[in-house]
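Reading group handout, session on sequence-to-structure problems. Before we discuss, look at one worked example. The prompt was deliberately terse, the way you'd type it at a terminal:

> structure Indole-3-glycerol phosphate synthase

The input record follows.
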Amino acid sequence: MNSSTALAPEVESILAAARERPGGDTPLEVAPRPFSDALERAETDGRVPVIAEVKPTSPTADGTREDDPVELAEAMVAGGATAISVLTEPTHFGGSPETLTRVREAVDVPVLRKDFLLREEQLDVVEADLVLVIARFVDNLADLVTAARDRGFQPLVEVHDEAELEAALEADADLIGVNNRDLARLEVDLGTFESVSADVPDDVTLIAESGISTPADVRRMRAAGADALLVGSAIMDHGAEEADVEANTRRLTRSTVEEET
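And the output record:
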């Protein structure tokens, strides 16, 4: 699915690089850690389900984190993260497939591969438990979702508006992330999740993405129906090299829907 709306130059640059990146030689066979089980464990433990993101940098970040990604991921899990997201895009986010492999070997929670995947063979670069598929960037969404499942991946289909949500549902997506960031202007509006997710079927797991920085943001997204939250910059805190990633994670995973006292 491709939109006629112009993308921000930063996003166009990311996509141009993604088009040039090769895929794997043979289809992978993945034995995934079930994300649904991880969600259930978090809820039973009284934690807000948070997918914490290992993201060294990004076009919207204030700086770069040079920490060992494995140590960051372990700190996030210690802080209560339900799953870990790892950027594998090298040019704009400082990620790599090798980093994902190292993180997945070090933690016992599901690991999401976050990248800009455009073709089926790009799934075959590295094993992960979940894989991000961005509806706006894919020509045949249903085929890519099916290809991901055939390999054992749990596809997380990202949408931003009602048209993309409809396409995701038509592609039989049962794990959908609503990105609060507008890729045309790179602006964030938490109201995006509230409006787009209003009519999603109950059997779809919903994840709120982008712009979630405070316990109040967590409560707002949960009240709007988010089953989990994907949080990167607020945990990584790119502007502060010594930021406590474990504490940042715990601050969000221990949020509640009640008002702070």
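Points for discussion. First: The chain has one domain: 33-253. Second: The radius of gyration is 17 Å.
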